[in-house]
Write a structure and sequence with these properties.
It holds the Pfam family UDPGT. This is Scopoletin glucosyltransferase. By secondary structure, the chain is an alpha/beta fold. Helices cover 42% and strands 16% of the residues. The strands form four sheets. The chain has a seven-stranded parallel beta sheet with strand order 3-2-1-4-5-8-9, sandwiched between helices. Strands 13-12-10-14-15-16 form a six-stranded parallel beta sheet, sandwiched between helices. Strands 6-7 form a two-stranded antiparallel ribbon. The structure holds uridine-5'-diphosphate.
Length: 476
């Protein structure tokens, strides 16, 4: 069997996709695999940061810059970076623009001839290009097994078809657990606003079937029934190799997130060190959700009412929506630390003072919460977050649902009253129910650690993956 193996990673540029894929590339390099990360000039600096200064395998990782011909298409540079606000461009155009990367991607494949391509789910066209050169294309689907199984059951059986109202619950059929949803919690695929996104989702799910396999940032013991269901019932080839963030063990590594923190990490750790075990709740809605001003106001009211220690990440200037004097009062009492901009999330969730996480249930946040052994208030907003919320509350039993929230086509978090937030946080951080949720979360945390150690399920699946790619390249 050939000893050398070259895997090319092609990440989508949203942080929630880019961070785990960069960590995945480092993980492969740590096993002696030659890895290339394909990216655009605008996005490359983020990867330099994400790969990290402290990693020893940098000789095995190369950044390959592909030219994005934005200027030729009269588009602003950086449009392919989906977190940049481009107000006049609907999301349809972002995906149209991204498809312009096909030609330079094919040129790279032609020259470099990697043994395998791991490309983000949002680049469905990579499957055809890879097939042209007889190279296996693996999909990186940013989600876990559970949301993929729910998505597939919804697609095949359409259980929402027969309900008489948006709030009437229905069972998602043929799943290992009884999962109840309402129409309100589902994406409205007919919405014009998300038309471009829906088209890409359809292409992505078709490409998932025709690709060689799927690599998952998950671990077997987290969702065993769904890891099996995905492979044996839905019949997809998959490897679970996560949580990839756990591979980064020291403080410097945990801080490599492709973006500068809105707080000095020592200040943050000092504040956390001054609190007792499980005494702090961390609140974040990830990178894509917009929290409306009235919702920011209600969250502040809720936090003040429930009187728990908190770290809350907000975007710059969002403090303008706070109730009069809120920030000063929280600071004076030592109750709250407000981070404006980017928070060192993994560092915070791993701290023993943090016992709870109010989260929008993005897959990375769920996995990082589990890896930190914290309970959660599940507050989904869009995408597959409502499915993930069910996993946290109904399957893992480590979360409190925020209540009756609706899927948002505009990525907006809104409509929850301060009193509801205060009650949910009080339940989460409380002695009885909260403690039991944290106990269960800690069991999952230990399992996550074991999964990535030598001999663990994720470690072994990565070995199997690498061996299979090497064997395939022998044959070709
Ligand atoms: N993140 C972070 N600091 C922040 C906000 C987000 O480190 O202030 C990271 C977080 O740890 C996670 C990713 O960004 O790895 C967000 O991914 P997720 O799937 O949770 O949500 P998305 O932003 O994609 O909705």
């Amino acid at each position: 069997m050939k000893d050398s193996c070259h895997v090319a990673f092609f990440p989508f540029t949203a942080y929630g996709h880019m961070i785990p894929m960069a960590h995945m590339a480092v993980l492969f390099a740590s096993r002696g695999v030659q890895t290339t990360i394909i990216t655009t000039r605008e996005t490359a600096p983020r990867f330099t940061e994400l790969i990290g200064k402290t990693i020893n395998y940098d000789h095995l990782i190369t950044l390959h810059i592909i030219e994005f011909k934005a200027a030729e298409a009269c588009l602003p540079l950086g449009l392919e970076n989906s977190d940049k606000p481009v107000p006049s461009q609907p999301i349809t155009n972002v995906f149209d623009v991204i498809s312009m990367l096909q030609e330079p991607f094919e040129q790279f494949i032609l020259q470099a001839r990697p043994n395998c391509i791991v490309a983000d789910m949002f680049y469905p066209w990579t499957t055809k290009i890879a097939a042209k050169y007889n190279i296996p294309r693996i999909v990186f689907n940013v989600n876990g097994f559970f949301p993929l199984c729910v998505f597939e059951a919804m697609r095949v059986y359409d259980p929402a078809r027969d309900v008489s109202s948006d709030s009437e619950p229905f069972i998602v059929p043929h799943l290992p657990h009884k999962i109840m949803l309402t129409k309100k919690q589902l994406a409205r695929f007919e919405e014009v606003k998300i038309k471009g996104f829906v088209e890409v989702l359809i292409q992505a799910s078709e490409a998932e079937v025709t690709s060689y396999g799927v690599v998952m940032n998950s671990f077997y013991e987290l969702e065993p029934e769904y890891a099996l269901h995905y492979r044996e019932v839905i019949k997809r080839k998959a490897w679970h190799i996560g949580p990839v963030s756990l591979f980064r063990k020291n403080i410097e590594d945990k801080l490599e997130r492709g973006r500068e923190s809105g707080i000095d990490e020592h200040e943050c750790l000092k504040w956390l060190d001054s609190k007792g075990c499980d005494a702090v709740v961390y609140i974040s809605f990830g990178t894509m959700v917009t929290v409306t001003s009235s919702q920011l106001y209600e969250i502040a009211m809720g936090l003040e009412a429930c009187d728990k220690n908190f770290i809350w990440v907000i975007k710059k200037d969002e403090e303008k929506s706070f109730p009069e004097g809120f920030e000063a009062r929280m600071k004076a009492k030592g109750k709250g630390l407000i981070i404006k901009g980017w928070a060192p999330q993994v560092l915070i969730l791993d701290h023993e003072s943090v016992g709870g996480f109010v989260t929008h249930c993005g897959w990375n946040s769920v996995l990082e919460g589990v890896s930190g052994g914290v309970g959660m208030v599940a507050w989904p907003v869009m995408a597959e977050q409502f499915f993930n919320a069910k996993l946290v509350t109904d399957v893992f039993g480590i979360g409190v649902p925020i209540g009756d929230v609706e899927w948002s086509a505009t990525s907006r978090c809104e409509g929850v009253k301060g009193e509801t937030i205060a009650n949910a946080v009080a339940r989460l951080m409380g002695a009885e129910e909260g403690q039991e949720m944290r106990r269960r979360a800690r069991v999952l945390k230990d399992k996550a650690k074991t999964a990535i150690e030598e001999g663990g399920s994720s470690y072994s699946d990565l070995t199997a993956f690498i061996n299979e790619i090497k064997a395939l390249s022998e044959l070709s």
